[in-house]
Amino acid sequence: MNLRYLETNEIDIAAALCARSFKDDPLFMFFFPNPKDRQKKACVFFRAQLKMCLSFTYVLDELSGIIIYQRPTDHMRSLSIKDGFLLIISVGIKAVLKAIVFQRFSKQQMKHHHQKYRDHLVLICVDEKERNKGYATEMIHHFISSSTYLETQNPDNIHFYQNLGFQLHHKEAFTTPSGSFDHILMVSESTKEEIYL
Hints:
The chain is an alpha+beta fold. Helices cover about 45% and strands about 25% of the residues.
C-alpha cells in the first residue's frame, strides 16, 4: 500500500469515488433526499470538501482509496467565491443549509466530548472493486493514535471501527422535520503500537 497526498488535478476523480461510496449514507440521504440526483450533488459536495481539506487528504495509488485525516495543526482552506457559488448553484441552497445545520450540531457534540481526542478521521472510502482487501484497515492503521476520533451516521460502520480499536463514545439522534438518524462518535482505545500487537 502506498499512501500519498491527493493532487489538485485528481479532485474530480476522488470526489466521484466519495460520492459513490456515500450514496446510501444516512447523512447524504438527508442532504440530498432525491436518489435520482444524490450522486451528482454529492460529487459536487465532495469536490468542495476535498478542496478545503487538500493539505490533509491522502490517497492510495490508482485512487482506489481516500482518507482525510486532520490533526490539530491542519487547517481547512476556505472555498473561493467561485467554488462556493458553484456549490450553492449545483446542490441547492436547501442542501447547503442542511449541511451547515448538521455541522453546527456536530461541533456542539464535540464541545462536550473532545477533551483528549484531537486527531479527526474525517472520511475514509475505498473503491467498491477494491473492498475486502484490507485497504481501509491499512489506511487507518497508518494514522490512528490514542487521540483519534471519528464520526459516523451509518450504524453498519460501528463493528468495522470497533475491530480497529475504536469504541463507541457517544450517540445522539440528529432530528429533523423529515426524520432522524444517529450521530455516532467513536474514539480510539489504544495507541498505534498497541493495535499492531
